[in-house]
Please model this.
Amino acid sequence: MSKTDKKPEKNKFQMWVEFIPFWCLYHIIRMMNLRVAYFLSRQLFKVLYVIDRRHRVRSIQHLLHAGVARTPHEARHMAHKAYLNFSMLLVEIFKFDQLVKPGMVGVVGDPETIRAACKPEGNNCNVIVVTAHYGNWELAGSCWAQQFRIPMVSVFRRFGNPLIGKYILGSRESKWHQSVPKEGGIKGMLRALREGKTIAILADQHAKTKEGVENVFFGQPCRTHTSPALLHLKTGVPIVPELTRRCGNGFNFEFVVGEMIRYTPTGDKEKDVQTVAQMYTSALEKLIREEPEQWMWAHRRWLNINRKSSAASSSRAA
Model:
């Protein structure tokens, strides 16, 4: 990354200006009844949907670009539902340790994957969980590890404000689940896999050129992170595509797992990485299509829309 690509670091004053309202909101929500907290957060996000034009319009454009919504009206409806899902996620992140209980998340999906990696009585194989910003992805760490009795290491992007990051990470980690920073994390992940632990990686966001390969997502060109592919090709540990899907309007979820990915290297590393990355990208797309409004549509995932190199986005979405 060049110096011009780096975001300027915040000074201590900026960090505290951000942290103080976060700290107040955090403790207020933790004192609330869950239903009341959900209600208030929904009202906040309904207002945010109206005033945050940039992300609202971008979500609508992306839903149309991916062919998930057929009309602008349908896209606006789905984008609004996506905002409300994130209103609930905010509450759940703040109340994470108050809400999570062992065995609370059901499992649906590919029978072979469930038999190999998701048996409630344990005796599961370790895997590379490739997941997405969908439903409540935070549960894919602690709940998966506790439920299937294999310690997990997940990868995170460093927070712009470490004071806030400390709170979020503190509620996420447990004796079953540890988090490691994305930068320089490959060695730690390799070590964890060789120790029989499971790895969880969010692989649904745009990757920089040196970190990803170009492939196709919802029929459009994108660039996907290669770390799951590299880890799989290096260790042979299978990849499990997974989403943590919300069921209804409360704190109820299920792990949705796709077909386990096992790939035999051909000796052409570049081609192998490309192929495996497309396999888990396509697998995540298939799972997201089942209830697409739970995915983070505001993210600039594609190379041919909402980027400097892409053509101007359609004005229909506004």
Q: What stands out?
A: The CA atoms of residues 173 and 179 lie 7 Å apart.
